[in-house]
C-alpha cells in the first residue's frame, strides 16, 4: 500500500466495480423516464443520484490516494459491489416502499469504506490522522443512514440529507488539513472521466432501447440521430478539456476552493447527463406533429444547459488552476525555453476561459426556449440543441491541437 505520486491508470478491479454503478445509473434513468409527469417525483428521483455517485466516489478517492491490491482489499471491494447491487435493486422504490432497504445498502457501503481507511491508517503511519478523520466522519454518516431506516418518511429523507452533508464536510475539513494526501492527479481525472462516460453511455442505452420497440419513421430516425449527436457533443466538450490541474493546485499550492469546485461540479454534470438521456427519450417518444409540452421543454433544455454550464465551470477551474503553473514557471527562471513554455501555457489558459464563456452562452441560449415558453415541435427542438452543440465543437476546433480546421 503506497501513496507515491506517479502516473496511474484505472485497475481492472476498479473497472469491474464501475460495472455495478453502470447498472445503478441505468436504473435511475429508467426511474426518471417513468416519472416525467410529476415534477416533485422527478426531482426526488434526480436527488437519488447524489448518494449513488457519492458511493462510487468513496472508493474511487480511496484508490486515488492509496494504491492497494491485496487480498483483503479485493474482498472489501467485492462486498461493496454487493452493497451497490442492493442499492441498485432498491432505486425504483427508494422514495417509498424500499427506502429503508436503500438506506441500509448505502450504510453498508460506507461502513466497508471506513474499514478501508482504518487499514490505510495502520499500514501508513504518515496517513494515520488523515485516515482516522475520514473514518470517523464517514462512520457517523453511515450510522445516520442506518438509523434512518427506522424513521418514517419524510423525516427519513431529512436524515439522509444530514448524513450526506456530514460526508461532504468530512472531505472538506479533513482534506484541507492534509494537502499532501490529495488524490493522485493522474488517476482521479481519469476515474471521474470514466464515470462521466458511464453516464453518457446511459444516453446511448436509452436510445437503443427505444429503437428496439419503436416504430421507425423519418421523424423518429432524425430525432435519434440528433440525440446521439448531442451525446457526442457533450462527450467532446468534456473530454477535450479534462485535466488534473485543480488537484495539482490543491496539492502544491493549497488552493482547495478550486479543487472542491472542480470536484463537486461533476455532480450537476452527471445529473444533467442522466436527465439529458431521459429528455432525449421523451423527445423521441413524443408525438412529432404536436408542440412539445412546457414540462418537456424544461426537461431537455434544462438538462443540456446544466451539462453545458457544468462543463464551463470545469474548464474555468482548470484555467484558474493552470495559473499556478504559470506563476511557478515565471519564478523558476527567464530562460528562452521556460519563457516559451509559459507563453504557450498562458495561451492554453485563455483558450479554456474563452471556451468556458461559450459554454455558458450556449446553455443560456438553450434555456431561453422554455423561459420564453416558445411553442416548438419535438423534432425541431432536438435539432436546434444538436446544432448548438455542434457549433460549440466547431468553436473549439479553432484551437484544437490535433483536429484544427481553421
Task: Give a quick set of tags describing it.
15 helices, 2 domains, single chain, mainly alpha, 406 residues
Q: How many beta-strand elements?
A: 0
User: Low-confidence segments, ≥5 residues, pLDDT <50?
Assistant: none
Number of helices: 15
Q: Helices and strands, in N-to-C order?
A: HHHHHHHHHHHHHHH
Which band does the percent of strand residues land in?
Answer: under 5%
Q: Provide mean pLDDT, rounded.
A: 82
Question: Tell me, what's the shape?
Answer: globular
Structural domains: how many: 2
Largest sheet: none
State the helical fraction.
Answer: over 70%
- Which class of secondary structure composition applies to the elements? mainly alpha
What is the terminal separation in angstroms? 48 Å
Q: Which value, in Å, is the CA radius of gyration?
A: 22 Å
Please render the helix and strand layout as text.
Blueprint: H1 12-33, H2 39-47, H3 49-65, H4 71-89, H5 99-123, H6 128-148, H7 155-177, H8 187-213, H9 218-239, H10 245-253, H11 256-264, H12 266-285, H13 294-332, H14 336-371, H15 378-397
Characterise the protein shown here.
This protein has 406 residues and is mostly helical. The protein has two domains: 1-183, no CATH class; 185-406, no CATH class. It has 15 helices and no strands. Helix 1 packs antiparallel against helix 3. The longest helix is centred in the C-terminal third of the chain and has 39 residues, at 294-332. The protein is globular. The termini are far apart. The mean pLDDT is 82.
Can you summarize this structure?
This protein is mostly helical and 406 residues long.
